Amino acid sequence: MPPKGKGNGKKKGKSKGKGKGTSKEPKCRAAAEPEPTSHFYFPREIISNILSRLPVKTLLRFRCVSKQWRNLISKPDFIASHFRHSSSLQFSGSSILIGSRHRESNHHVVSLYNPPESVVQVDSPFPCFFPNMYIVGPCNGFICLFNPPWGELITLWNPAMRKYKMVELTDSLPRQGLHFLASIGMAFDFQHNDLLILRIFCVGIMYAVPNHVEMYSSKSGKWKKLKNEMIFHILEFTCNVIVKGVAYWLVCMPDKFGSRAVFVRFDVGKLVFEKLPSIGRRKKHQYLVELEGSLCMLDWDHKDDCHMDVWVMDDVDGWSKKYSVGPLVGFDLILGCLRNGDIVAKNENGVIFLCDPITSSIKEKFSFDNNKDGSYVIVDYSESLFLIGGMLPVKKQDAQDKLARKRVTRFDDQFIIILQFMLLHKYIYYIYLLCVGSQLPLLDVVIASFSYFMCS
C-alpha cells in the first residue's frame, strides 16, 4: 500500500495548491502597492504646496488624475493658497488684461497679455455690441463688467476659469435731478469668503446729501441697502483701485472752504466708508494703483521732461513719498502702473510700453491692430480658482451672436428711417393745413413752420 496520504498530497498540495498560490500572489502584491499619487510617497502638505504654485489651466487638467487631487483642488483653503501664490508671482511678471474697442465695428475687445508672450484675445461674456462696457477689478481673480451710467448688465467674470454670472439688479432707481451716475466697486470679505459688489447712486455736487449705497453678496445672491452718513461726490463710473479686497475712490468732499479732493475706502468688516489722510499739494495728474500689495498714488505733470512721484499709503504714518521716476521721454500718455512697479505708457503711434521705474528703460512693448486709439483700459490680473454659485461657461461669439448683433443694428436703422419718414410726413401735412387755413404764401408758411419745428 502506498504511504498514507502521499499520493493525495502530491496531487492536492503540490499541483493544485501551488497553482492557486502562484496565481493569487501577483494580485495580492499589486493590491498592496500604493497609487503613485498617494500620500505614501509624498505627504499631502508637500503635494498641496506643489500644486498651489501651478497655473489654473494645468490644475484643471490635473483634476482628472485622481479623486484625491480633484477634492484637494476644490477645497477653499487650497483655492486661497493658490491665489496667494498667483499674486506673489505677479510681482516678478504681471499678467495684463486689456479692454479696447475695434476701430471699424466699435465692438468691445478683451485681450490678455503674459510677457513675453503675444497678446491673445479672450472670449468675454459681455455683449460686444452694447454701446459701453466698463471694467472693475480684478478682485480675487474676478472682473466686473457693466454698462454705464447706472451700472446695468453687471456681469461677474473669472477669465481663468472661463465662467461668468449675470447679476440681477434691485428695483432701486435713480432719483431724477438728484443722482447723475452710478459708481461700481468690488470688495472681498476674506472672513466669510464672500465677493461683494458696491453700487453707489452718486448725487450732484450742488447737493449736500449722502449717496444711496447698495451691496451685493455673492454668497447670499442678494442686494441690501447700506447705511451711509458720509457726504462725498464721486465723479467716476468705477472705483479707482482695489487693494487686498478693499475698494478705494478719489472723491470730492465739501468743507468750509468749498470742496477738496480726498480718498475714501470701503471697510468690509464695518460696511462703512472711511476717509483717508490727504497728501497735500500735488501735481496735475493723480492715479491710484496697487504697488507690491500697498495702496500707492502716481503724481505727475504731462510735460516733455515728465517726472513722476510715487507715494505709498500707510495706516499709521499716512502718505510718504517712495521714489521719483523720470524723465519719461517719448510717451504720449501714461496709462498707469502694474503691481510689480512697471509703468504702462503709450506713444503717439499707439504702441504700449512697459517701463522699468528704476532705470527708466523699456522692458516690453506691444500694439494692437484695428483698435481705436485712446480706448485702452489696462488692469493687472491674477489667476484664481474661486467660483460663486450660478456661474455659466463663457461661450465663443459664434454665428448666433453675430446674427443677433445684425438684427439689433438692422432694427436701429429701420427705426431711424421710419421715424424720419413720420416726421417728414407730419411736417408736410402741417404745411398743407396752414396753407389751406390761413391762405398765406407757401414760402412764408414753410419758413414759419420750419422755425416752429426747430424750436419745439
From TrEMBL:
<protein>
    <recommendedName>
        <fullName>F-box domain-containing protein</fullName>
    </recommendedName>
</protein>
<dbReference type="Pfam" id="PF00646">
    <property type="entry name" value="F-box"/>
</dbReference>
<feature type="compositionally biased region" description="Basic and acidic residues">
    <location>
        <begin position="22"/>
        <end position="32"/>
    </location>
</feature>
<feature type="transmembrane region" description="Helical">
    <location>
        <begin position="193"/>
        <end position="210"/>
    </location>
</feature>
<dbReference type="Pfam" id="PF07734">
    <property type="entry name" value="FBA_1"/>
</dbReference>
<feature type="domain" description="F-box">
    <location>
        <begin position="36"/>
        <end position="86"/>
    </location>
</feature>
<dbReference type="InterPro" id="IPR017451">
    <property type="entry name" value="F-box-assoc_interact_dom"/>
</dbReference>
<dbReference type="InterPro" id="IPR006527">
    <property type="entry name" value="F-box-assoc_dom_typ1"/>
</dbReference>
<keyword id="KW-1133">Transmembrane helix</keyword>
<dbReference type="InterPro" id="IPR050796">
    <property type="entry name" value="SCF_F-box_component"/>
</dbReference>
<keyword id="KW-0472">Membrane</keyword>
<feature type="region of interest" description="Disordered">
    <location>
        <begin position="1"/>
        <end position="32"/>
    </location>
</feature>
<feature type="compositionally biased region" description="Basic residues">
    <location>
        <begin position="7"/>
        <end position="21"/>
    </location>
</feature>
<keyword id="KW-0812">Transmembrane</keyword>
<feature type="transmembrane region" description="Helical">
    <location>
        <begin position="230"/>
        <end position="251"/>
    </location>
</feature>
<dbReference type="InterPro" id="IPR001810">
    <property type="entry name" value="F-box_dom"/>
</dbReference>
<dbReference type="InterPro" id="IPR036047">
    <property type="entry name" value="F-box-like_dom_sf"/>
</dbReference>
